[in-house]
Each structure stands twice: as C-alpha cells, then as structure tokens.
Design goal:
The chain is α/β, with parallel strands linked by helices. It has 2 domains: 237 residues, P-loop containing nucleotide triphosphate hydrolases (Rossmann fold, 3-Layer(aba) Sandwich), CATH 3.40.50; 62 residues, Histone, subunit A (Orthogonal Bundle), CATH 1.10.20.140. The chain contains 12 helices and 6 strands.
Length: 314
C-alpha cells in the first residue's frame, strides 16, 4: 500500500508584540513559505494601525492569507476560521509551498489543528439575555459557567464576555457542558504534521515594547483610523472595536476618556491580554519555545535550523 503523504506546517505562537510576524516573514523567505493569519483582529478590513498588521509594502512579496477578509461588523467564529484556514493550507501545499501560520489567537489555532465541535446555532434572544445579565452583574456569567462546566470555566477569562456567552449558550441549549462536546466531536486536521514554535521574550521587556507600541499607534493615527471606520457606518459596538486599543479610541472619540486616560487603559489592557496569551499557549502541547523576540537575529538563527530539521525529517 502506498504511503499517504503528509505535508509540513509551521505554527508560530506567542503573546502580542513578541515578533511573530517578523519571524514568519524570515522563515517564509528562507523556505518558500506563505503566511496564514491566526489573529482574530487582522481578519478585518480598515483596522490596520491598532492590529499591528504588516503593511503590504513590507510583506516582501510573500503571499499572505486570511487578512482583510471581513468588514468590522461581520461575525466570524473560530469554527469558520478553522474551515477557511484549512482550505488555505490545502491551496498552499498544492503549490508546493510551506504554510506558516502566525498569530496569537489560541482558539483559532485550536480550531485549525484540533477542530471544534459543530455546536448548536446561535440563539440571539438567549445571547441578548445573557449579555444583559453580565452587564447588570459583572462576573455572573463566569460564575454560572463554573457551575455548569467546571472544566471549561478556568480556560475562559472572566472578562471575555463573548466566549462566556457562547459557552453558557451551548450548555443551556444542549444540556451538556462545553468540555464534553470538545472531547467527543472535534475533528483534527489531517494530512499535515506541525512544528509549533513559541516566542517567549522576557516579560518586562515585552511590556516595555507594548507600551511603546501603544504610544506609537496613537501617534500614527489610531484615532483617525477609528473615526474613518465609524464614518463608514460601522457601529462602535462592533466586536473588533471592543478590543484593547480600539475600545479606548472609541471612548476618546465619544468623550468618555481624555487622551492620557485612553493611552493608559490601552497599555494596561494590552499587557493583560499578553499575559492571558502566555497562559493559553503554555497549555498548548508540543510547543518548541525560543527565548526572545522574533525580530532578534539570535532568535531567527535558532529557529532556522529547527525548521530545516523538521522539513528534512519528513
């Protein structure tokens, strides 16, 4: 019987600001790769400054996939990401190129590699009630999920209202915990073997970079970018505009924060997000961790032979 071919796949993970895009570009240039986005904000059009999206002029002619595919008010689930990303992987390997998945959205990577259960459809009336409950009593959804599904609750941050709503929604609609569905009905990615590279810079150095990057975003026109999005008719409540940086820009434009306050909260929330990403990816299996930032020569020098050996082993 002929041996089934298995294609190589590189995944670069780590907290925001750790240099995943820089390392992905270097590896793609060295190994004839194409980059697949794994960031839940960079899928949106018109949101460039606040997402630290690599401009087309700096992509070195390397194809990029799943960037700028949605308008800011469109709903995009991890399951839909998994389907689109798997299609992109097949197209890339059909061209005999190396797919390099890069980004910090852990749930997206899980959907791609491990699969997510199909799940029930969205019940908008139920979701509205759950959102209202959380608005009235902050933290109540996390406490509710802890009762319904004590295994899933620790994996979802109490401030991540969208994920909490979905988890509680599944529990209520199916009468089964979310964790049970994950165990039973996930369909893992087939036809690929994966090398996961994790970037682990010193925490204080990362926080300093994030603070500097936030200030740079404000100075580069983040407020103008958000104003243009709102002027296009997209609501301020659109999900990507509720993320760190963008939310503070909206609050500034609406007169709820002054510029100093907006920058303070953007920095603080970005650091908190990075910390949550670290926690998530440390639970990820088989990650080869590299100490440092992805734009540092010594980090790239360490990553290159890892990828070369991985490809040779196939």
């Amino acid at each position: 019987m002929a041996k089934t071919s298995v294609a190589p796949l590189i995944a670069i993970v780590g907290p925001t600001g750790s240099g995943k895009s820089d390392l992905a570009l270097r590896l793609a240039g060295e190994f004839q790769g194409e980059i697949v986005n794994c960031d839940s904000l960079q899928v949106y059009r018109h949101l460039d400054i606040g997402t630290a999206k690599v401009p087309p002029s700096e992509r070195r002619g390397i194809p990029h996939h799943l960037f700028d595919i949605l308008d800011p008010d469109q709903v995009f689930t991890a399951g839909e990401y998994g389907r689109r990303a798997r299609a992109a992987l097949r197209e890339i390997t059909a061209r005999r190129r190396l797919p390099i998945v890069a980004g910090g959205t852990g749930l997206y990577l899980r959907a791609l590699l491990d699969g997510l259960f199909p799940g029930p459809g969205r019940d908008e009336a139920l979701r509205t009630r759950l959102a209202g409950r959380e608005a009235r009593r902050p933290g109540s959804l996390h406490r509710l999920l802890s009762r319904f599904d004590p295994q899933a609750a620790p994996r979802i941050h109490p401030a991540d209202v969208q994920k909490l709503i979905r988890a509680v929604e599944v529990c209520l609609l199916t009468r089964r915990p979310l964790s049970a569905w994950f165990r039973e009905q996930r369909q893992a990615l087939e036809g690929f073997r994966t090398l996961k590279l994790g970037l682990n810079p010193p925490r204080q150095a990362l926080y300093e970079r994030l603070d500097t990057r936030c200030q740079g975003m404000f100075e580069a026109g983040l407020m103008a970018e958000v104003r243009q999005v709102l002027d296009r008719g997209f609501p301020a409540a659109s999900k990507p505009l509720q993320s760190h940086g963008y939310r503070q820009a909206v609050q500034f434009l609406q007169g709820e924060l002054d510029l100093k306050e907006a920058l303070y909260y953007a920095r603080r929330n970005t650091r908190r997000y990075a910390k949550r990403q670290w926690t998530w990816f440390r639970r990820e299996s088989d990650v080869v961790w590299i100490q440092g930032f992805g734009d540092q020569p010594q980090v790239q020098a360490e990553a290159l032979p890892l990828v070369e050996g991985f490809l040779a082993a196939g």
